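re: ur question from yesterday

yeah so i grabbed the chain u mentioned. its 340 aa long if i counted rite. heres the sequnce exactly as i have it in my notes:
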Amino acid sequence: QILVATPGRLLDHIENRSSFSVRLMGLKLLVLDEADHLLDLGFRKDIEKIADSLPRQRQTLLFSATVPKEVRRVSQMVLNKDHVFVDTVGLGAVETPTKVQQQYLVVPHELHFHMVHRLLREHIDQEVDYKVIVFCTTAMVTEFMYIMLRDLKLNVREIHSRKPQLYRTRISEEFRDSNRLILVTSDVSTRGVNYPDVTLVIQAGVPPGREHYIHRLGRTGREGKSGKGILLIAPWEEYFLKEIHDLPIQKAPVPQIDQEMKQKVDDSIKIVDMSIKEAAYHAWLGYYNSIADISRDKVMLADLASRFGVSIGMEKPPTLFRKTAFKMGLKGVPGIRIRK
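ran it thru and got these structure tokens back, copy pasting raw so excuse formatting
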């Protein structure tokens, strides 16, 4: 028998079903796949508890695209002391595809949606069989971007964590088998998927970290093919460039956005439902509040969030629950509105 499970669900069975724990005593092989990603998601304690519940006489295989300190710590606990480390990449190997051109653009955040549209139009004009992935910071920003681009008559699909699994699978298969299509997505498409012939990857907003940038970029240039990656950041997100300074990424000149194109994007932003705009604001605020380089200055964060709200057509920022604001360290911060 083979059991495939997420750490949280597996631990739930171990802790609440005694018969299940007894059956696990016959386990011969444990596989931890995407170990670095599991730890990114906060599953370290779950993995430690699971390992303590399994027989010590077993074979364990741990797979990881990167080997940061957290992965090394967990490997020392779940693997035997005399385990074998197999490096399929090799010392000195490049971390990003050699045939992928990497560029970054520094653009005021309030123009990011306009710039994504500008970059997509330019790429579509240049590539007959274009196939583009646009990564957004959160699920609700993804949905906002999708609705806007769809209204601008682009052939676009969306995948993010708020969509049902059956829907995500259907869209993923459609994108895999198609050309002349744009996929707007959150980090659910960063790993574990293989989309052939992707010609461009746009990352709109700063990624959570270096590994995320590399994995997102890796959706193009697969199997030795060429591709292009563009990182779109605001001036206050330039700190991230220090994390990828050793990668072959170049600053690109910022394309001009003519007034007619800007007006079209503004008109499409207006048609997005206010409930989605409010959800996008809350998600945006939560995302950047989780990034230490930005959240340490709460007043600046609140101001940036207000400006983001204006850029998506909101006259004033939506309110936060008092408890939420307190947990985020934003209670009493100018520009943060509390729900009464």
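noticed a couple things. The chain has three domains: 7-78, 100-270, 274-327. also Residues 274-289 form the longest helix (16 residues).
anyway ttyl
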